[in-house]
Amino acid sequence: MMRPSADPNSSSEPSYISRTTKIRQVMTLSPHTIGSDQKLTLAHKMMREYHLRHLPVLRAGELVGVLSERDLFFLESVAGVDVDIDAVSEAMTADVYTAHPEDYVRDVARVMSLRRYGCAVVMEDSRLLGIFTATDALRYLAEALV
């Protein structure tokens, strides 16, 4: 199955929602990542520059967490935090929801909504392939309902 076109005026295949759509078909490929030892200022800069709300956090190439825009805003409100000194590892969430590229969108979206997760990091074995965010889910829904 093909992903619905992002262009609502496109004359390609009609858009529809399928129970068998896989995460690999709608995820954001090769997402931006950040090292756990990087400073929070770099995370802010990347999020602003690339319009991101979630950054997978890596240490020696391995996924160790996810940093959300909300995490950053909360941490900055805590007295004593210095974004020029403090590392991403101090603000990230270590308990990351991961999905496999062959998982169904319906199943991943259900878990995300029940647990109020903003994203699922898509992994195959220990390789980070992509990220599926609430924004990706809404984009897919909007495209499918055209």
Distinctive features:
146 residues, alpha/beta, CBS-domain, three-stranded mixed β-sheet, 4 helices, 7 strands, disordered N terminus
Q: What would your notes on this structure say?
A:
By secondary structure, the chain is an alpha/beta fold. The protein has one domain: CBS-domain. The protein contains four helices and seven strands. The chain has helices at 40-50, 69-76, 105-115, 134-144, and strands spanning 28-29, 34-35, 54-59, 62-68, 98-99, 119-124, 127-133. The strands form two sheets. Strands 1-7-6-5 form a four-stranded mixed beta sheet. The two termini are 17 Å apart.
Strand content: 15-25%
Poorly predicted sequence stretches spanning 5 or more consecutive residues = 1-15
Termini separation comes to 17 Å
Bulk shape: globular
Output the structural class: alpha/beta
H-E order: EEHEEHEHEEH
- CATH fourth-tier homologous superfamily: CBS-domain
Helix content: 25-40%
Record the SSE blueprint:
Layout: E1 28-29, E2 34-35, H1 40-50, E3 54-59, E4 62-68, H2 69-76, E5 98-99, H3 105-115, E6 119-124, E7 127-133, H4 134-144
Give a brief description:
The protein has 146 residues and is α/β, with parallel strands linked by helices. The protein has helices at residues 40-50, 69-76, 105-115, 134-144; strands at 28-29, 34-35, 54-59, 62-68, 98-99, 119-124, 127-133. A four-stranded mixed sheet has the order 1-7-6-5. Strands 2-3-4 form a three-stranded mixed sheet.
